[in-house]
C-alpha cells in the first residue's frame, strides 16, 4: 500500500494540471501580497484626523448649546449623549499622542461599545455607523455596521487585556496572520476547496488511459481508492506551500502578528462576541477545511466510480461548493434548517467567527455542526463507495 | 463535411458529458427561479429604503456649517438632502401603489443626482451613491417610461422578466460555462487518434465539424433555457415582453426585454464559437484539458485583475466576454473610463474567430497529432 | 499501385529506413517481418504521411504524392491503416464504429453487414465496445478497415490477440480482398500464417527491406535441411562446431539447437545423427527449413 501511495503520488506531482494549480496559486498569492494587500483600506482604521474632527465638532456643540424648554428634542438628545462619547474620543487622541497603544485599545473598546449602543439601540434614523457601510445598494448597511462595531469592540477589548505587541498595523488588521484571518473570512476557503476539487477530479479516471497497467495491481479497488483519496488530500494540503509565499511577503512588509492576538467570535445565542486566540482560530479553520477536503474527496471518489466522467466530477464538486449562492438569503436560517446542508459551511472563516450565524439568524451554524455534517457526508460517501467497489460485478476500469 | 458532422453527432449523442451539461443547464434555470422567488417581491421598496439610508449616512459626513441656510452652506449637502427627499417619496409611491408618482419623482431624482457628480467633494460620498453610469441608465429609463406611458412593474417571476434575469445572470457565466464544457473538445478525440488520423478529410474540416457539433449542443442548451422557463408561464403568466431595459451600447438607450434577449443570444453564440475555437487551438498547443481551461479562465479574468488593460487594449475580445457588464456600461466606471461598444465587441470577437479559423487551416495537420 | 522512392528516415542520427525503393502492385499481399523497433511501423507511418521521411517520396497510382494537404486527403481516400484497438470509443457500439468508417470513406454500406457476417461478429456488434474482449476489439478494428474499402490497406499486427480460428477467418478475408485487387501490407509475427497468403515477404534489417527469397540465396540456405535437437546446451553446440566446422549451428533461447545443411548432402545426416546419439541426444527431428528457422538465423 505504501508503494502504491508513492506510485500515485509521483503521478500526481508530475500531472501537468496539478503543477498548473500550484503555479496559479503561487501567482495569486504573490499578486495578493504585492498588489491587493497594500491597497487594503479598512473601514475601522486608526484615523487621528477623523477622530479629531468629530471630537472638535461635538466639543464645540457642547460648549455652545443652550438647553431650555424650547430646545429641540434631538438637540437635547445630542447634548445628553455626546459628553461620554467625546470623553472616549479624547482618551483615544491622548493615547495616540502619547503613543500608548494599550490605552488606545482600551479607549477604543469603550468607544465602540458606547457608539454601538447609541446607534443601534437609541439612534435609529438619527445616528449612523461609519458611512462607508452605507454603500449604494446595500440593503443591510445598519446590520453590517452593528456587526462591525461589536466586532471591533471585542477586538480592542482583547488587545487591551492581552499581552500581544500592539501597533497600528495590528489595529488595522494588516499583519500577516491577521491578513490570513481576513482572507479566511472571504475567498481563501473557496480557493482551497476548488483546488481540492481540481486535484481529485481526475485521480481515479486518469487510469482509464492505461487500464491494463493498473488493473493488475495486487490491491483491491477499495484500497486503491483510499490511497488515491489520500494522495488528493496530501496534494490539497500542500497548497499551503505556494500560499505561504504570499504570507511571507506580507510578514516582511507588515510584520507577522502573533498567535495570541484576539479574534472575536460571535455567538447568535448570546448575541455577543467573545474572543479566541489567533492560534485557536487558525486551528479551527484548518480543522474544518480538512473535513471539507475529506468530504469533497470522498464525494468525488464516489462520483468517479459511478458516473466515470471527469466533467461530472467537476460539476458535482462545484454544485456542493457554490450551492449556497442559490438559497442564501439573509436570515434564512431562522426559518429553514440550512445547517444540515454541507454547502452552508463553505465560508469556513465566517463559520468559525460566527458571522454566518449572524447573517442567517441561526444558532446552529457552528464549527461543531460543520464538522458533524462533513463527517456524516464523508462517511455516507465512503460507505457507498465501499459497497459499490466491493460489489462482485463492479469493474472500475 | 456533412458526413463528418453526422458521425460526430453519433459520437456526441451518447457522450456522458453532454448529458451532464444539459442537466446543469436545467439545474441553473430552476435554481435561479427558486432564488428569484426567495428574493422577496418587495425588492424595489427595500432598495429605495437602503438608498435613503445610504444618503443619510452620506449626510453625516458634513459639518454643521455646511447646513447654513444663508447661502454659505455646502451645495452638495443640499443636493443630497434633496435626493433623500425624492427617494423617500419614491418609496412612498411604491407603498401606496402609485407608479406614476414613482416615475415623476424618479425623473426629478436622476436630474438632481446628475448635477451632484459635478459638485465639489463628491468623491467623499461617491461610494454611498449610484455611479454616474447607473444614474444615466436610470434617467433614460424613467424618461422613456414617462414618454411611452409605461408604469413601473415589480413582477420578476413571469416568463419574460424571468428570462431577462436568466440572461443577465448568464452574461457573467456564459464564457466560464462554455470553456469548461469545451476545454476537452479535442483532447477527448486525441484518445482515439488512430481512428481519426487517417480520415480522408483535412484536419481543418475535421475541426470545423467537431466545433459545429459542439455548437449544435450549445444551441440545445439555449433552447433548453427557454424550454425550462416555459412552466412559469403557467404559474406567473407571460409578462410584458416589451418592458423597457436601459443599456449602454456605445450610447445610452432603452430597449425592450425581447431586444435584450436578442442581443444576449447573439453574444452568447459569438462567445460560444470563440470559446470553442480557442479550446481547439489550446488543446493542440497544450495537449491538456485543464491547462486549456486555466489559460482560458486567466485570459477571462485578466481585464478584471488589471483594469488598465481595458483602455490599453480595447480590441481585446476578452473585454467583451461578460456582456451583462458590457450592457451595464461598467467599463465607463473604471479608473480610466472606456466606452466599450456592443457592436465593436461583436466585431472584435468575430475577427478573432476568423483569425483562429485561419490559424487552424494554415498550421494544423493531422499527421503530427500524438495520442495523449 | 504504391511506389516508395528512396525513402530514408533517421531518428537522432540512427538510420531507421535507408534508401528504400520498392513498388507494390494491386492484388498483392506484402508481409513485413522484423523484430520490434526495426522500422516496420515507421514504414507504415511514412506511407500514411504521419511521418515525413528525411529523403525520398511516396507515390500513389498516377503520380499522386504528399505534396499538399489537398493531396493528403485524396491519398487517404486510397490508403488506410488499421486503427489501434485501444482507441475505440467505449461508449459506441461496434456497428456504430463501422457506420462511421463506412460513411467517412463513402464505401458501399452493404459492406457493413457482409463484413459483420463474414467475421462472425453478429452476436456482439450492437453492444458497446467498452464491454468487448481484446479479440473482439481486434476483429472490430479489422472490420473497420475492411469496411473503409480502400485500395491500399496497412495492417500492423492484425492477428494480435486472435485465436487460431479467427486467424483463419481473417486470413481467408485477406485472400478475398487480394482477389478483389487490393494492395495489403501486413506486419506480423505469425510467420507460418503469413507464408500462406503473402505474395512477397520482406525482412527488415538495418533499415532496408530484404525479400526472403533473396535471403535464402544470399545465405546459401536455399532448400536447406534443418535438424532440430531438443534440450541443446552450450557445450553440445561447441562440440558440434568442433566436429562439423563447416556447418552453421545455432542455439535458440528455447534450448533447441538448429543445424542446417544443404539438401544434397544427405549423407551428412547419418554422421550427425551418430554424433548426437553418442552425446546422449537421440531425440531430434529433420525437416525443411521454415520461415521461422530463417528468421532466427537472419536475426540471431
Automatic annotation (TrEMBL), chain A:
<feature type="transmembrane region" description="Helical">
    <location>
        <begin position="187"/>
        <end position="205"/>
    </location>
</feature>
<feature type="transmembrane region" description="Helical">
    <location>
        <begin position="311"/>
        <end position="328"/>
    </location>
</feature>
<protein>
    <submittedName>
        <fullName>ABC-2 type transport system permease protein</fullName>
    </submittedName>
</protein>
<keyword id="KW-0472">Membrane</keyword>
<feature type="transmembrane region" description="Helical">
    <location>
        <begin position="20"/>
        <end position="40"/>
    </location>
</feature>
<feature type="transmembrane region" description="Helical">
    <location>
        <begin position="370"/>
        <end position="388"/>
    </location>
</feature>
<feature type="transmembrane region" description="Helical">
    <location>
        <begin position="225"/>
        <end position="252"/>
    </location>
</feature>
<keyword id="KW-1133">Transmembrane helix</keyword>
<feature type="transmembrane region" description="Helical">
    <location>
        <begin position="281"/>
        <end position="304"/>
    </location>
</feature>
<keyword id="KW-0812">Transmembrane</keyword>
Automatic annotation (TrEMBL), chain B:
<keyword id="KW-0812">Transmembrane</keyword>
<keyword id="KW-1133">Transmembrane helix</keyword>
<feature type="transmembrane region" description="Helical">
    <location>
        <begin position="214"/>
        <end position="237"/>
    </location>
</feature>
<feature type="transmembrane region" description="Helical">
    <location>
        <begin position="342"/>
        <end position="364"/>
    </location>
</feature>
<feature type="transmembrane region" description="Helical">
    <location>
        <begin position="18"/>
        <end position="35"/>
    </location>
</feature>
<feature type="transmembrane region" description="Helical">
    <location>
        <begin position="162"/>
        <end position="187"/>
    </location>
</feature>
<feature type="transmembrane region" description="Helical">
    <location>
        <begin position="293"/>
        <end position="315"/>
    </location>
</feature>
<protein>
    <recommendedName>
        <fullName>ABC-2 type transport system permease protein</fullName>
    </recommendedName>
</protein>
<keyword id="KW-0472">Membrane</keyword>
<feature type="transmembrane region" description="Helical">
    <location>
        <begin position="257"/>
        <end position="286"/>
    </location>
</feature>
TrEMBL record, chain C:
<dbReference type="InterPro" id="IPR003593">
    <property type="entry name" value="AAA+_ATPase"/>
</dbReference>
<keyword id="KW-0547">Nucleotide-binding</keyword>
<keyword id="KW-0067">ATP-binding</keyword>
<keyword id="KW-0813">Transport</keyword>
<dbReference type="Pfam" id="PF00005">
    <property type="entry name" value="ABC_tran"/>
</dbReference>
<protein>
    <submittedName>
        <fullName>ABC-2 type transport system ATP-binding protein</fullName>
    </submittedName>
</protein>
<dbReference type="InterPro" id="IPR017871">
    <property type="entry name" value="ABC_transporter-like_CS"/>
</dbReference>
<dbReference type="InterPro" id="IPR027417">
    <property type="entry name" value="P-loop_NTPase"/>
</dbReference>
<feature type="domain" description="ABC transporter">
    <location>
        <begin position="2"/>
        <end position="231"/>
    </location>
</feature>
<dbReference type="InterPro" id="IPR051782">
    <property type="entry name" value="ABC_Transporter_VariousFunc"/>
</dbReference>
<dbReference type="GO" id="GO:0016887">
    <property type="term" value="F:ATP hydrolysis activity"/>
</dbReference>
<dbReference type="InterPro" id="IPR003439">
    <property type="entry name" value="ABC_transporter-like_ATP-bd"/>
</dbReference>
<dbReference type="GO" id="GO:0005524">
    <property type="term" value="F:ATP binding"/>
</dbReference>
Amino acid at each position: 500500500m505504501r508503494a502504491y501511495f508513492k506510485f500515485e503520488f509521483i503521478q500526481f506531482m508530475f500531472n501537468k494540471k496539478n503543477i498548473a494549480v500550484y503555479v496559479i496559486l503561487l501567482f495569486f498569492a504573490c499578486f495578493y501580497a504585492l498588489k491587493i494587500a497594500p491597497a487594503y483600506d479598512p473601514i475601522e482604521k486608526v484615523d487621528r484626523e477623523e477622530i479629531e474632527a468629530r471630537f472638535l465638532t461635538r466639543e464645540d456643540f457642547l460648549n455652545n448649546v443652550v438647553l431650555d424648554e424650547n430646545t429641540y428634542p434631538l438637540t437635547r438628545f445630542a447634548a445628553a449623549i455626546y459628553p461620554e462619547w467625546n470623553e472616549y474620543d479624547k482618551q483615544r487622541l491622548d493615547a495616540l499622542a502619547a503613543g500608548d497603544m494599550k490605552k488606545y485599545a482600551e479607549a477604543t473598546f469603550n468607544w465602540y461599545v458606547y457608539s454601538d449602543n447609541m446607534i443601534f439601540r437609541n439612534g435609529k434614523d438619527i445616528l449612523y455607523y461609519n458611512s462607508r457601510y452605507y454603500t449604494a445598494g446595500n440593503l443591510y448597511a445598519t446590520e453590517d455596521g452593528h456587526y462591525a462595531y461589536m466586532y471591533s469592540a471585542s477586538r480592542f477589548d482583547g488587545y487591551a487585556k492581552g499581552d500581544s505587541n500592539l501597533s497600528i498595523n495590528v489595529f488595522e488588521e494588516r499583519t500577516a496572520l491577521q491578513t490570513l484571518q481576513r482572507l479566511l473570512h472571504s475567498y481563501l476557503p473557496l480557493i482551497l476547496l476548488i483546488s481540492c476539487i481540481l486535484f481529485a477530479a481526475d485521480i481515479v479516471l486518469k487510469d482509464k488511459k492505461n487500464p491494463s497497467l493498473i488493473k493488475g495491481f495486487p490491491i483491491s479497488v477499495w484500497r486503491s481508492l483510499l490511497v488515491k483519496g489520500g494522495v488528493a488530500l496530501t496534494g490539497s494540503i500542500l497548497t499551503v506551500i505556494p500560499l505561504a509565499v504570499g504570507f511571507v511577503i506580507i510578514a516582511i512588509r507588515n510584520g507577522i502578528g502573533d498567535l495570541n492576538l484576539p479574534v472575536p467570535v460571535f455567538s447568535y445565542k448570546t448575541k455577543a462576541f467573545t474572543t479566541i486566540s489567533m492560534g485557536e482560530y487558525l486551528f479551527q479553520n484548518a480543522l474544518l477545511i480538512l473535513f471539507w477536503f475529506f468530504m469533497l474527496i470522498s464525494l468525488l471518489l464516489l462520483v468517479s466510480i459511478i458516473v466515470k466522467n471527469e466533467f461530472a466530477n467537476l460539476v458535482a464538486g462545484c454544485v456542493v461548493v457554490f450551492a449556497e449562492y442559490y438559497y442564501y438569503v439573509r436570515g434564512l436560517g431562522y426559518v429553514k434548517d440550512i445547517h444540515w446542508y454541507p454547502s452552508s459551511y463553505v465560508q469556513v472563516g465566517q463559520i468559525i467567527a460566527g458571522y454566518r450565524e449572524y447573517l442567517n439568524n441561526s444558532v446552529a451554524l457552528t464549527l461543531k455542526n460543520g464538522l458533524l455534517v462533513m463527517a456524516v457526508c464523508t462517511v455516507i460517501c465512503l460507505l457507498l463507495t465501499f459497497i459499490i467497489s466491493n460489489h462482485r460485478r463492479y469493474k472500475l476500469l | 463535411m456533412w458526413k463528418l458532422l453526422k458521425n460526430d453527432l453519433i459520437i456526441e449523442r451518447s457522450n456522458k458529458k453532454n448529458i451532464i451539461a444539459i442537466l446543469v443547464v436545467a439545474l441553473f434555470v430552476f435554481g435561479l427561479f427558486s432564488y428569484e422567488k426567495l428574493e422577496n417581491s418587495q425588492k424595489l421598496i427595500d432598495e429605495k429604503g437602503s438608498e435613503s439610508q445610504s444618503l443619510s449616512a452620506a449626510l453625516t459626513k458634513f459639518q454643521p456649517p455646511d447646513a447654513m441656510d444663508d447661502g454659505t452652506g455646502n451645495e452638495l449637502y443640499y443636493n443630497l438632502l434633496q435626493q433623500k427627499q425624492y427617494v423617500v417619496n419614491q418609496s412612498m409611491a411604491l407603498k401606496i401603489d402609485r407608479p406614476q408618482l414613482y416615475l415623476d419623482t424618479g425623473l426629478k431624482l436622476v436630474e438632481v443626482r446628475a448635477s451632484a457628480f459635478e459638485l465639489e467633494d463628491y468623491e467623499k460620498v461617491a461610494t454611498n451613491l449610484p455611479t454616474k453610469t447607473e444614474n444615466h441608465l436610470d434617467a433614460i429609463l424613467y424618461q422613456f417610461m414617462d414618454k411611452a406611458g409605461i408604469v413601473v412593474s415589480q413582477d420578476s417571476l413571469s416568463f419574460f422578466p424571468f428570462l431577462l434575469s436568466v440572461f443577465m445572470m448568464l452574461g457573467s457565466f456564459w464564457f466560464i460555462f462554455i470553456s469548461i464544457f469545451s476545454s476537452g473538445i479535442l483532447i477527448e478525440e486525441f484518445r482515439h487518434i488512430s481512428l481519426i488520423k487517417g480520415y480522408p478529410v483535412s484536419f481543418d474540416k475535421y475541426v470545423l465539424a467537431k466545433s459545429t457539433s459542439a455548437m449544435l449542443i450549445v444551441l440545445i442548451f439555449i433552447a433548453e433555457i427557454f424550454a425550462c422557463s416555459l412552466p412559469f408561464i403557467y404559474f406567473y403568466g407571460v409578462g410584458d415582453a416589451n418592458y423597457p431595459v436601459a443599456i449602454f451600447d456605445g450610447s445610452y438607450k432603452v430597449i425592450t426585454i425581447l431586444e435584450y434577449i436578442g442581443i444576449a443570444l447573439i453574444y452568447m453564440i459569438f462567445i460560444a464559437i470563440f470559446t470553442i475555437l480557442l479550446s481547439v487551438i489550446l488543446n493542440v498547443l497544450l495537449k491538456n484539458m485543464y491547462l486549456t481551461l486555466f489559460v482560458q479562465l486567466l485570459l477571462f479574468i485578466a481585464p478584471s485583475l488589471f483594469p488598465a488593460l481595458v483602455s490599453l487594449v480595447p480590441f481585446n475580445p476578452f473585454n467583451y466576454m461578460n456582456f451583462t457588464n458590457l450592457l451595464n456600461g461598467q467599463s465607463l466606471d473604471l479608473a480610466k473610463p472606456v466606452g466599450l461598444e456592443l457592436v465593436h465587441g461583436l466585431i472584435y470577437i468575430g475577427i478573432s474567430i476568423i483569425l483562429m479559423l485561419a490559424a487552424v487551416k494554415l498550421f494544423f495537420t493531422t499527421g503530427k497529432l500524438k495520442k495523449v | 499501385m504504391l511506389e516508395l522512392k528512396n525513402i530514408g528516415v533517421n531518428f537522432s542520427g540512427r538510420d531507421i529506413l535507408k534508401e528504400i525503393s520498392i513498388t507494390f502492385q494491386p492484388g498483392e499481399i506484402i508481409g513485413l517481418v522484423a523484430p520490434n523497433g526495426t522500422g516496420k511501423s515507421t514504414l507504415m507511418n511514412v506511407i500514411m504521411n504521419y511521418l515525413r521521411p528525411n529523403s525520398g517520396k511516396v507515390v500513389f497510382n498516377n503520380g499522386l504524392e504528399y505534396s499538399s494537404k489537398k493531396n493528403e486527403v485524396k491519398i487517404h481516400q486510397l490508403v488506410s491503416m488499421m486503427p489501434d484497438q485501444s482507441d475505440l470509443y467505449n461508449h459506441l457500439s461496434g456497428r456504430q464504429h463501422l457506420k462511421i468508417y463506412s460513411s467517412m470513406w463513402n464505401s458501399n454500406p452493404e459492406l457493413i453487414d457482409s463484413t459483420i457476417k463474414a467475421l462472425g461478429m453478429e452476436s456482439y456488434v450492437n453492444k458497446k465496445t467498452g464491454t468487448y474482449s481484446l479479440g473482439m476489439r481486434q476483429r472490430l478494428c479489422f472490420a473497420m478497415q475492411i469496411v473503409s474499402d480502400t485500395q491500399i490497406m496497412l495492417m500492423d499486427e492484425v492477428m494480435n490477440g486472435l485465436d487460431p480460428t479467427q486467424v483463419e477467418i481473417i486470413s481467408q478475408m485477406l485472400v478475398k480482398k487480394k482477389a478483389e485487387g487490393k494492395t495489403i501490407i501486413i506486419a506480423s509475427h505469425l510467420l507460418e500464417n503469413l507464408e500462406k497468403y503473402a505474395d512477397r515477404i520482406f525482412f527488415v534489417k538495418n533499415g532496408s527491406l530484404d525479400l526472403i527469397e533473396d535471403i535464402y540465396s544470399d545465405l546459401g540456405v536455399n532448400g536447406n535441411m534443418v535438424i532440430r535437437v531438443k534440450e541443446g546446451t552450450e557445450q553440445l553446440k561447441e562440440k558440434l562446431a568442433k566436429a562439423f566446422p563447416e556447418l552453421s549451428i545455432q542455439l535458440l533461447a528455447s534450448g533447441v539447437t538448429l543445424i542446417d545443411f544443404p539438401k544434397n548432402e544427405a549423407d551428412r545426416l547419418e554422421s550427425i545423427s551418430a554424433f548426437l546419439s553418442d552425446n546422449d541426444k537421440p531425440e531430434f527431428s529433420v525437416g525443411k527449413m521454415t520461415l521461422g528457422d530463417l528468421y532466427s538465423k537472419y536475426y540471431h
